[in-house]
Design goal:
Layout (H helix, E strand, L loop, with lengths): L3 H13 L4 H13 L11 H13 L6 H20 L12 H11 L13 H14 L10 H22 L4 H5 L12 E4 L2 E4 L2 H18 L9 H6 L8 H12 L17 H13 L4 H8 L3 H7 L1 H5 L8 H10 L8
Antiparallel strand pairs: 1-2
Length: about 325
């Protein structure tokens, strides 16, 4: 006979799809081993920690990204249990980043070694293909799964474009509230910096907010987080990696090697790193970049050393430098 958690797991898959099937199933298997699959009220963060330790010992989990995917999967599962009134969210009372770090240290998980940065052609292809896919109006989309995908990719498009104009961390972008935008959606404040919004992104924002209004039949309020308003109250920034993966596989993005059918997530962080890399190459003020992206200048210098200190363009002479700065002054156009 199926245990209570197994029944809920099957209901979860039916309601949310099988994006996180593999890792949630591993967790259910572990709960059966420790005899807690029928007592969900007794499950806590120590059980998740011990579950990861169990799979580390088996050699199934070896790297940080595998552990992070496991946590993302369980957070999605517990979001569903909370939404349906089956269980409280055991992740709500902890610092997620500190918890991940403690697991990394305790189980000596391998560090990420890749600092993937997309080429300009890849970024253009991503933008072009996601715009083309979302050209159809939401009201014309048929089928529950197609509608879900349209909403998910609409949110994904906003995250990508907002990150490209203000390369902040994923959680910062995903926690933006409506009050962070001006009433005309022409500017947004990210990490305390006011950023101008290009017209095409402004249009995308309006369309996505209209989808949210159509779904929930209510206007967005100042303190509402825009992505929860668009996607739903269960939105978590961790799901973006799954949506980005499905988008890459579906659209065959140039510059990204073919993603295997078994893979269910692809990190969206290279979007931020790409924007930062090009800013640094363009000689942007590191203090300004630091303010927007939330990284200290020392970290930027270490991470983007090649862009900063190698292949530098020839420096203009003093006269050219002064001329360039003078041209920026308000009175210059009157001379």
């Amino acid at each position: 006979m199926a245990t209570l958690m197994e029944k809920w797991y099957k209901e979860y898959l039916k309601a949310k799809g099988d994006t996180y099937r593999n890792h949630v199933n591993k967790f259910i298997d572990y709960l059966n081993i420790i005899n807690k699959a029928d007592t969900p009220i007794n499950i806590n963060l120590d059980d998740i920690r011990n579950c990861i330790g169990y799979y580390v010992e088996l050699g199934v989990f070896n790297a940080i990204n595998t552990m992070e995917l496991h946590l993302e999967s369980l957070k999605s599962f517990y979001d569903y249990l909370l939404e349906t009134g089956k269980s409280p969210d055991i992740f709500s009372q902890m610092n997620y980043e500190e918890y991940k770090k403690s697991l990394t240290d305790e189980f000596n998980l391998a560090q990420k070694v890749s600092r993937e940065v997309f080429s300009m052609d890849t970024v253009k292809d991503i933008l072009s293909k996601i715009d083309n896919y979302l050209e159809a109006e939401y009201s014309t989309i048929e089928g529950i799964n197609n509608k879900k995908r349209y909403i998910h990719w609409s949110a994904l498009r906003l995250v990508i474009k907002l990150t490209l104009i203000a390369p902040a961390k994923r959680q910062v972008i995903c926690n933006l509230k409506y009050v962070d935008f001006d009433k005309d959606l022409r500017t947004v404040v990210i990490n305390g910096v006011g950023i101008s919004i290009p017209n095409s992104l402004r249009r995308d924002l309006k369309l996505a907010l209209e989808i949210g209004k159509a779904q929930w039949n209510k206007d967005i309020k100042d303190q509402d987080k825009i992505f929860r308003y668009i996607v739903g109250s269960g939105f978590r920034n961790e799901v973006l990696n799954a949506w980005f993966c499905s988008f890459i596989k579906d659209q065959n993005i140039i510059g990204i090697n073919k993603v295997s059918d078994e893979r269910t997530t692809y990190p969206i962080e290279p979007i931020m790193k790409t924007a930062i890399s090009h800013l640094v190459k363009g000689r942007a003020n590191l203090a300004y970049v630091s303010k927007v992206c939330g990284l200290d200048i020392g970290s930027l210098e270490r991470t983007y050393y090649d862009e900063i200190f190698q292949n530098q363009p020839p420096q203009p002479n003093i006269g050219e430098s002064i001329d360039w700065e003078i041209r920026k002054l308000e009175y210059y156009s009157y001379i």
